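## retry 2 of 3
previous attempt timed out at serialization; input unchanged, resubmitting
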Amino acid sequence: MNRSELLFDRPTHLFASAPPELRGHDRDDVRLMMSTPEDDTHHAFTDLPWLLEPGDLLVVNESATLPASLSATCRIGKIRLNLSTRFADDLWLAEPRWSPSRPGPLPLDLNEILQIGDAKAILLQQYPGIPRLWFTHFDTPASVLMAKHGEPIHYSYAPAYPMSDYQTLFSHFPGSAEMPSAARPITPHVRDTLRERGIGIVGVILHTGVSSLEIEDDTVEQQALYPEIFRVPEATANAVNATHARGGRVIAVGTTVVRALETAWTPNGVRACSGATGLYIHPGTTVNVIDGLLTGLHDPVTSHLAMLSAIAGLGRVKRAYAEAIRNKYLWHEFGDSHLLWRQIAN
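## retry succeeded, writing output
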């Protein structure tokens, strides 16, 4: 697939610049579009329990968001260093940027030294195929630097808000560079209603890196991706397999959950496992585990959009996104939601 097939025009006034709570709404007061093979329908997010069936299973990401953006100075001036993937507390994959609104790559050299408060970081080498990301070594544990200097990663469409605005009801295990935002509108009320309806909720952990990579290679399938740390517990693997065995549907809450579950798939079902996943789900990839995806609305020409196209088919994704734009749905982590059902092969 050529990258141009994932291109679409989306007005900037559809970027959600603040959480619903700061726009005079409840956290779960966002819209939800449901896309089936036949059509796209519009709902309140609080309708979710009635769009699913008793016996269905939601799988959420239990990773919590870190204050992963650090102010740094170096030879070229003041920059931001956004942490992405942790290999050790003193070794991360990180993205140097000019600012939240100005990405890289920056004109930095091997062994470039960055000053972060009283600490130093050294850029060791660029990640193969993704020059904006660097293996970065810290002389002070990154957890200490984040606690002292960090703020949430944010971009030009929104300022930084308190860390609590970047957590979900299921944020139990710190490790994500950016919020696994698909579950953000799930409030205790929505969760309890799902359970009362006989819909299960289980968790995986996938610590997200910096936001969905824009596909730069002309051929979508050849784009390099960076690894993310994940864990699929045995109880979750068993619940997924049992749901499928009795004819229920498995719905991933977020693209991160898709990546974790599909990494854990075997011909005998989902297995408990953990580690680093480099799985890239794009058109042509067989999706084996999930039957549906609850997610936000994604940017054009990104790895997330490639995943949606693998799940539902490019034509359905384009149809749904045109419908979302016509109906003024809001994009990004504080925006509206999209429930997308998997394309069933003939």
